[in-house]
Sequence to fold (283 residues):
Amino acid sequence: MPLYKLEEFDPNYRETFGGDDVKALDLYTEGGVRVGSIADALVDQNGRFRYLVIHTAVDSVSKNILLPIGLSRINYPAKRVYVDGLSKQQVEHLPEYNESITVDEDYEENVRRVFRSPTSGMIYDRETYSYQKEPALYGLTEPYHQTFRLYEERLIANKQRIKTGEVAVGKHIETETARVTVPVQKERVLIERVAPKNAETGETIVDPKEVKFQAGEVARIELYEETPEIRKQAFVREEVRVRKMVEQDTVEAQDTIRREELDINTQGDLLMNETKVSQPETM
Fold:
């Protein structure tokens, strides 16, 4: 897997790290003894830190070496990188690094062999080796270990229900004058006074003996009439049904979105392969 110097991989790496610069940090042991400074960093094709380039001076032995990132603890606020011990023997056995050296698989294994624990049981195979096999050397568990990430913006469509209005249906009363016609009947008395007439003389002759004069004789006739009876009665004139219906519509929106692309600047005659992985590594 090809490795790149920090500024070759990202010329604006300081902005990527929010202004922090790993190359401005000093190297200390956990006990607080300064043993060197950071000259550079090497990252893989995914932007993950793999080595710190250390300019070290331990017991009068001075040279540039590679320190696997998992053996360090970067503290940007303190402007320090801490390493859990770095002995004179390790510095002496580590291959010297300079900018003209191509860091290939064999060079990396020479570095790992110095730091690898004898009890690790690790058997190196160039064809199958991966950084994940030795998390003690390359495990990126500290919060200040950085990974370059390329971001892009996407339009996310969502829906939200908002109240656009309401309909209130009520009743009110209107009055009007209604007229109805009812035929009624009324009885009245008609009194006709007719003189009886004889057929010959034109007068009716009554025998006095047959006539009985009686005072106070009364003829009674009852008279009736119809009176209208008007009353009000409520009827259902019509029914009003209120319901909602949902209309389907499609709303189209557009906006300008951004995407970060990777810029790789190289110097010199380098062999470089770029591989896209679908899932990011966990270490």
Summary: Residues 178 and 232 are 11 Å apart (CA to CA). The chain has one domain: 1-180+234-283. The first helix runs from residue 6 to 9.
